[in-house]
Design brief:
Blueprint: H1 2-13, H2 20-35, H3 67-80, H4 84-94, H5 107-119, H6 121-124, H7 145-165, H8 169-184, H9 188-197, H10 212-218, H11 227-232, H12 237-249, H13 253-263, H14 273-282, H15 310-317, H16 324-334, H17 348-358, H18 368-380, H19 384-396, H20 404-416, H21 420-432, H22 442-454, H23 461-472
Helix pairs in contact: 1-2, 1-7, 3-4, 4-5, 5-7, 5-8, 7-10, 8-9, 9-12, 12-13, 12-14, 16-18, 18-19, 19-20, 20-21, 21-22
Length: 484
């Protein structure tokens, strides 16, 4: 606590325009509850003077989830949607700031949500202008919205730095991968944030360079900065260009303008285009979906990302075109189903088993996103058949938006697991090339074709088309609803 007091005092001391007397008054006002009488709020962590509001806790409606599970899932839904305060709360909960959250403690997850909160523009964008000419303006109460968010961010910076100091390289990589995955689910705004985080023209988490918390993290003459947070996302033009280009690829006009501005921001940047284009065409997020790990509490770290664009919603609606046998096969592979069956014979308890694995509410009714997740989860866990199905789903935009880089990735994974169909699909990618995903390489195509033949699959265009038609599913009558 002494370190936190000192850090916040230093931050206040160095805020531009704040006189020493004013800083002293602010420090005393902000830290009085810490030193004298801590007051526990409904979230369990201490409320300081000027603490920001928190999202409403969910009301328990189902006996299958306890209150803690309800709270965490509601916060994750809001956090994935970009709610700054929910992201701060998730970091607090996973850091186990109160005794009742000890079962949730997970430093990697805590660091992930601190980083996402710090990168969230709604945490640092000013809501109101202040009269810099008025000396009393700097004495406004910390409870004002801009100041309370600044207080939340400076605390997050310090907490994140301390957590990172006790992590090894593998844990750091998990934090980075989870942050990149969550932001990638937010479309153009998420990619733009990632671009700023790698651009030296911005603060450590994409905020303006003159942001007080960013300046504190980067260091003052009397303060060396926060080395951990500065190393989490190293600055480099290549990654900044990559994420700006990925944002522009979504079709967002603003992202395209930002990309062109970035290209003209330095003498070397314009020369990156050809090199970055190849990386963009082959880029896939670190995870197929958020790792559903669970701490000892058994409360899953569920993926609460939702379709954000018309393209994503249209793709998800097509999942019912996929023959249900592929979903059933995935459920069997995962151990959620004893044997394959058609949809009408799927039992509620089987669905609940899958939903428990995914950290979803155990309703006993299988929705569209859960069908996609079943195949994704089986693919991630090594099912060659699910990997092949997922590759075709990405090729055709069924259940997931069309993405040739991810299709190629899953064809490769299925081929590594010994799928002869995937071996031939890979050879087709290499021999034809596709939007820069697979370079034209005739020699490698021949090798893959021979390997496919040796695996018992005779390469032929007709056979490949038949496989894709079978996996995609030919036009068929809609599946009947299960009788419950």
């Amino acid at each position: 606590m002494t370190n936190a007091v000192a850090s916040i005092a230093l931050w206040l001391w160095n805020r531009p325009g704040v006189r020493r007397v004013a800083a002293t008054v602010l420090v005393i006002a902000a830290l009085a509850p810490v030193i004298a009488c801590d007051v526990a709020g409904p979230w369990g962590h201490r409320f300081y003077v000027g603490a920001c509001p928190r999202p409403q806790l969910p009301i328990s409606e189902s006996p299958q989830f306890n209150d803690q599970q309800h709270e965490i899932r509601a916060l994750r839904e809001q956090g994935f949607a970009g709610d700054f305060f929910a992201q701060i709360e998730l970091a607090h909960r996973y850091e186990a700031m109160r005794v009742t959250d000890k079962n949730l403690e997970d430093p990697v997850e805590a660091a992930t949500w601190y980083a996402l909160a710090l990168a969230n523009p709604t945490g640092y964008e000013h809501m109101a202008a202040h009269d810099q000419a008025n000396p009393n303006d700097h004495l406004r109460l910390i409870a004002h919205f801009d100041d309370c968010r600044a207080f939340e961010r400076i605390t997050a910076y310090n907490e994140l730095n301390q957590i990172l100091a006790h992590m090894d390289g593998g844990e750091w990589q998990k934090v980075k991968d989870r942050v990149i995955y969550v932001l990638s689910t937010q479309g153009a705004p998420g990619f733009e944030t990632l671009a700023r985080m790698h651009d030296s023209a911005f603060g450590p988490f994409g905020e303006p360079l003159d942001n007080d918390e960013a300046r504190y993290a980067m260091g003052y003459p009397n303060h060396g900065g926060l080395s951990g947070v500065l190393q989490l996302f190293p600055r480099n033009d290549v990654d900044a260009y990559l994420y700006n280009d990925l944002a522009a690829q979504t079709g967002d006009v603003g992202a395209y303008v930002l990309l062109r501005d970035f290209e003209h921001g330095g003498p070397q940047r314009s020369g990156y285009a050809a090199f970055i284009s190849t990386k963009v065409n082959r880029w896939v997020p670190p995870y197929e979906f958020y790792p559903p790990d669970a701490p000892p509490s058994g409360v899953p770290m569920s993926d609460e990302s939702q379709p954000r664009t018309d393209q994503q919603e249209a793709a998800l609606s097509r999942i019912d075109e996929l023959p249900f046998v592929h979903v059933a096969d995935a459920m069997v592979y995962l151990g959620a189903l004893p044997a394959p069956c058609d949809f009408p014979h799927l039992r509620p308890q089987d669905i609940q088993g899958l939903q428990a694995m995914l950290g979803r509410p155990q309703t006993g009714h299988l929705d569209q996103i859960e069908k996609v997740r079943a195949i994704q989860y089986a693919a991630v866990n090594g099912s060659a058949r699910a990997q092949l199905v997922l590759a075709v789903m990405y090729s055709q935009g069924v259940g997931v938006p069309a993405d040739y880089a991810r299709a190629f990735h899953w064809f490769e994974r299925a081929e590594e697991e010994g799928s002869p169909e995937a071996k031939y699909a890979i050879s087709t990618y290499f021999s034809l090339g596709l939007a820069g995903v697979a370079d034209q390489d005739k020699a490698q195509a021949v090798v893959h074709q021979l390997n496919a033949a040796l695996a018992g699959f005779t390469p032929s265009a007709d056979r490949l088309q038949a496989i894709l038609a079978r996996v995609n599913g030919a036009p068929h009558l809609p599946e009947r609803e299960a009788p419950w």
